[in-house]
From TrEMBL:
Keywords: Cell membrane, Ion channel, Ion transport, Membrane, Signal, Transmembrane, Transmembrane helix, Transport. GO terms for cellular component: plasma membrane; postsynapse. This is Uncharacterized protein. The keyword Transmembrane applies.
Length: 253
């Protein structure tokens, strides 16, 4: 999943504690002249700073006690392990983990500015396919090579929007199954009509099953929509089986 993030980092540097009641705002070009935390996204595949006209980062320096704030606008593409068993009525939980790349928790300790477990502000909670249900902040202390690091985790919960699938999959599939049952009212002697209707509906269901899974990961389990389409396929296939018995009975008679 891809996110547009406004990341604000706060820390204190005693070298800038001059006792002056003044805050200085500096552009992104001065960031490299300060010590800044080497924060990185653990499960990120690709992260970049927005560079519209100039790099989207800014520093606020408080000259009283040496407090520094670094604000950066980022675009990050992170991994998320999804459970698609209830697709498309699924609720997905994704995480974004932040840690220091080189400093363990004895040198650098991360803390949220707001309480752990509180919500994170989301600018746009409704997307084309998902709605962000909630976003929670957590702390973590992973162990790497006998060194414990400080880190933070943001947990996102996404609810998939189902109206698209209802109108594009479920309702058409029900109509196709109902159409296959029309063959029960077709005369048994009209072999091309009954067979053609049943074969057409079978191929349509097979196409729908393939199109649903074409844009999804090739998981080794069946999803909710797979069960629905396979059940629909079974109903249509039974119409062909029924017609075979009808023809066999008619010949005996």
């Amino acid at each position: 999943f891809t996110m547009d993030i406004y990341l604000g980092q706060f820390w204190q540097d005693p070298r800038f504690a001059f006792g002056l009641n003044k805050t200085v705002s500096l552009g992104g070009l001065f960031v490299d002249r300060f010590w800044i935390p080497d924060t990185f996204f653990v499960n990120s595949v690709d992260t970049e700073i927005h560079k519209m006209i100039s790099p989207n980062k800014k520093v606020w320096l408080n000259l009283d006690q040496g407090h520094i704030m670094l604000s950066t606008r980022l675009k990050s593409r992170a991994t998320c392990k999804m459970d698609l068993r209830k697709y498309p009525m699924d609720l997905q939980t994704c995480h974004l983990a932040l840690e220091s790349f080189s400093f363990d928790e004895e040198d650098l300790m991360y803390e949220w500015k707001k309480p752990v477990g509180s919500d994170v502000f989301i600018y746009d909670a409704e997307m084309a396919q998902f709605t962000v249900v909630n976003v929670k902040r957590k702390l973590k202390h992973p162990l790497y090579h006998s060194r414990r690091f400080s880190g933070m985790t943001v947990t996102f919960k996404f609810q998939r929007r189902t109206m698209y699938y209802i109108f594009q999959m479920y309702i058409p599939c029900v109509c196709i199954v109902a159409l296959s049952w029309v063959s029960f009212w077709v005369d048994a002697d009209a072999v091309p009509a009954r067979v053609g209707l049943s074969i057409t509906t079978v191929l349509t269901i097979c196409y729908m099953l393939g199109s649903v899974n074409s844009n999804l990961p090739r998981v080794s389990y069946l999803k909710a929509i797979d069960y629905f389409l396979l059940l629909s396929f079974g109903f249509i296939f039974l119409t062909l089986v029924e017609y075979v018995f009808v023809l066999k009975y008619a010949k005996r008679k």
